[in-house]
Amino acid sequence: MGNTLLTGFYRETNIHKEIDSVEHYYYVIEAITKINKPSYQTKLPEGDIKLEQVRKNQFVAEDVKFTKWYAGAYTPMRFDVVKKRMEFIVPNQQDRYAYQIERQTTYYDRIVFEISFKPVKNSADYEGKLYIDTDTYAIVKADYQYSKERLRRENIDRQHTGLQSRQFKVNYQPVGNVWHLQSIWQQATGFDKNANTTFRYITEYATTGIQENTVEDFDYIDKIQWGEVFLTKNTNYDSTFWKDFNIVTETKALTDHLIDTTYQLKVKQEMATSLSATELKKTNRKQKRLNPFFTITNYGMQPNGNALSITYSNPDNSFTVNEQRNLNQTYFAWSSSFGLTYDVGKNMYVSAQVYNGFSRNKFSGFDIGLGHRFLLSKPNNRPKHVAIELLFSSSRFFYRIADYKNNNITIDGVTFKNDKVRLELMNEQLAIKPKINYEVEINRKYSFYFEVGYLLTFSQRHRLLFSDENKNGALGSIGLNRKALPFSNERTSVLVNGQPAERFPFENLLYITIGCKGSIKLFR
């Protein structure tokens, strides 16, 4: 079977119950979706989901704490037994289970085997029943749930939800000679530690249209991303689309396919009596974002000459330095950094980062400043931005000269205690850092970007730095025994091309950065 375009109905419900109380709906979300379903020949890719229409009602206030579930809209991808190659149907995993033919029954007027399976090893995750067509041996239906051991492992990993059960019902339907996904229902029950209530979290999907050998090119803006929490997704609500519907589309196809339709009346009653449902649906929350990012940066360092000579002796002449270097045309200094940006306006943001070098020639420091984004792509396409930033930068550049075995070395009152002592040239500077970057959104949570910039220095200090290694073997780190000496010192001589040097013997050029940026939604 090749690529297939499915149209379907999706519903997500979160129901909570306090002690000595009745169940209460926290929210209900319904959507009409389109799915590019890739061929079943391989497990991956899983496909894309487009939201055609969405409506949601939240019955609790925004400040009510409860656990949010992500990737619910991906129910037709995540729990499709055949497409996902669940372990209980994979031959090399079947030694984990015991299988037994229970009976023959009918499904879509076809004779099928009902086969039960249960764990025989602790590594088995599921137990339940499979229904297999006796003519084609196609899997046409599956009712299964987490095993006790899988629940135990899940609850070790889960911070906020104590799972008691997780159940799944998957149905396929024949179209010609091919079986297609018909419906999926899954329910998780347990205790929500955030809300201090028990919960039932339910997702339901039913296919309402099938177009074989068809792929539709979805606009990026219309796709729902894997890691998105559907409840917090900003969606447009078209009342004219939904005006003839109650809570769920009242068609025979959906009534036949969806498994849990009995609660519709309860939801209608809650909507009729709950003012918060209407009020919250119309609330327009102003969204802001906090963006953590990680980068790798390369600075070019151009020497002022081609010959470097350094001599030094401590006051009692127990330690001396006599080093000669032939300098290349260009050296490179590398660092990694971690930082944050925070939106302060529609396209404005503040930025802060710290960075630390990891190469022989390295730099470290921090930046803080302001940026402005410009959107390059069309509104419905994958976002691409150009951003201009202006930062204040405090940084230190290092050029490593040599490492010496420590034989009770003392330099101007500082005694080094560890096995090695490192000598570096160090340039400390304050600068204004203009830069420009190009950013491409990979999905709603992550972006990659490339940037270039320059340091406009307004204050500098140039010194010889001695430092010893820490217990992990890293040299030149903050907090170690250190001694910095100015170039103009009676016991120090720094020569470039045979001439006394009072400055760091390199000029800083353009820098180039590649990075990955995350996105955390904030509301006020």
Give a short overview.
The protein has 524 residues and is mainly beta. The protein has seven helices and 27 strands.
Average of per-residue pLDDT values: 84
Count of runs of 4 or more consecutive helical residues = 7
Instruction: Classify the secondary structure makeup into a structural class.
Output: mainly beta
Strand arrangement within the widest β-sheet reads 3-2-1-10-9-8-7-6-5-4
Rg over CA atoms: 32 Å
**Main sheet summary:** 10 strands, antiparallel
How many strands appear in the DSSP assignment? 27
Helix fraction bin:
under 10%
The shape is elongated
Tell me what portion of residues adopts beta-strand conformation. Answer: over 45%
N→C terminal distance: 48 Å
- Contiguous runs where pLDDT drops below 50 for at least 5 residues: 244-255, 257-264, 274-287, 471-476
Walk me through this protein's architecture.
With 524 residues, the chain is mainly beta. Helix content is 9%, strand content 55%. The chain is built from 7 helices and 27 strands. It has helices at residues 75-78, 81-84, 148-157, 239-242, 252-257, 264-273, 275-282; strands at 4-17, 23-37, 48-58, 97-107, 110-119, 126-133, 139-146, 161-175, 178-192, 197-212, 287-303, 307-313, 320-326, 331-343, 348-357, 361-375, 384-405, 410-411, 414-415, 420-441, 446-453, 456-468, 482-486, 492-496, 499-500, 506-518, 520-523. A 10-stranded antiparallel beta sheet has the order 3-2-1-10-9-8-7-6-5-4. Strands 11-14-15-16-17-20-21-26 form an 8-stranded antiparallel beta barrel. It is elongated.
